[in-house]
Design goal:
CATH class: Alpha Beta
CATH topology: Rossmann fold
Number of strands: 5
Number of helices: 5
Strand order of the largest sheet: 2-1-3-4-5
Radius of gyration: 13 Å
Number of domains: 1
Structural class: alpha/beta
Order of helices and strands: EHEHEHEHEH
CATH superfamily: Response regulator
CATH architecture: 3-Layer(aba) Sandwich
Largest sheet: 5 strands, parallel
Length: about 130
């Protein structure tokens, strides 16, 4: 992995405030960050230009975020994935995300310090895929 300024992050969450807060925070740390609000837009972006890290909400309207993880496997792109979800009572959602290749799970609401640590950890070494 390259230096922070060279590392790209894509956020996929239908909550605009979450996307905005994460983008502002991560850009402030020097990452290149973009966001999309739907799974369909996320898949299109992954196919066009895979980021170094995908931050994904697995539970969204329309196409389920878990479908993004499934699609990411077929692209065979070395993308680290951090799943963010408020649906902690849906244990199967978290298990499914991890089974489909998510590298780390973070519960919503979250502390920015925890996001910073997760992002740094995931981007600190080579992607195992």
């Amino acid at each position: 992995m390259g230096h922070i300024g060279e590392q790209s992050i894509l956020i996929c969450d239908n909550e605009e405030l979450i996307c905005w807060a994460l983008k502002e925070h991560l850009r402030g740390l020097g990452y290149t960050v973009d966001s999309v609000g739907s799974s369909a837009d996320c898949i299109a972006r992954l196919e066009a230009q895979p980021p170094d890290l995908l931050i994904l909400d697995p539970v969204m309207p329309g196409v389920c975020g878990l479908h993004v993880l499934d699609r990411l496997k077929t692209l065979q792109a070395p993308v680290q994935t951090l799943v963010l979800s408020a649906h902690t009572n849906k244990h199967t959602t978290v298990q499914s995300a991890l089974r489909l290749g998510a590298d780390r799970y973070q519960r919503k609401p979250f502390m920015m310090a925890d996001i910073t640590a997760s992002v740094a950890h995931l981007l600190s070494g080579p992607c195992p895929r």
